[in-house]
Amino acid sequence: MFCMWGLCDEAQSYNSTSCWQPESCASQSITFDSSSDAISVSSYDGNPNDAPFVSIFEPNNAVVENGNLVLQMTYDSSEKKGFGSTVEGAHTIQYGTVTARIKTASIATGVVSAFIIRSDVIGDEIDFEWVGKNPSQVQTNFFYHDEPVYTNSASYDIGSDSSAGYHDYTIVWSADSVVWMVDGNTIRTLQRTSTYDSSSKVYKFPSARGRVGLSIWDGGNSGAEGTEEWAGYPTPWTPSTVYK
Fold first, then answer.
1. Is the bond leading into 59 cis (omega within 30 degrees of zero)?
2. Mind listing the pLDDT tens digit for each residue in 101-141?
3. How far is 217 from 104, CA to CA, in rounded Å?
4. Residue 231 CA, distance from chain mean position
5. Which residues pair with 85 in a beta bridge?
6. Is 79 an active-site residue?
């Protein structure tokens, strides 16, 4: 079940062929009108044409219903925090344009929703994130090799509650720039030239092949002080609470 490129650790695998090769990028429009549009990782056989998105955690908290992909987070009493959901594209991407029409789950303090392009192999990432304590605000961020540079983040007020209605969020990624857009309007542009680090003589610009991902997770009860302050602490829970 963990043979997918990016999830599979070749060094810890049975042999060098245990990990599937990265799937090439494909032009797609996914409407989530079929349950096969997002399946559990335990059911995925390695063919990205059979299932465009894969839910990578078990138990699987992602469902397709009424033409929507619904990501849910429930309470894990053993961990005393929420157990969320992450789905990733079966195809990989290295440059291109990705748009997701999203109504966030950030309806309470600590609940984080995310739309990302990420390389789990290298640690490069481009993202949109929403936190429940500021539901009318979307945050944009990028990472190079998982380096925690907090000044890379920038926020934008969308003018309404992101959990109350749908908006189109777009990432336009090229070898020279990243553009973040909301409802067709550019809210931020990152030029590769602006990421040059003179000490290491490296452009710290996300360029590694990755996967498109969507997720919900518990930032408020994460146990990491900085994350809890960012997301809002604590995330409110009862045994029957479900965020989605």
1. yes
2. 999 998 899 999 999 999 988 999 999 999 999 999 999 99
3. 12
4. 16
5. 216
6. no
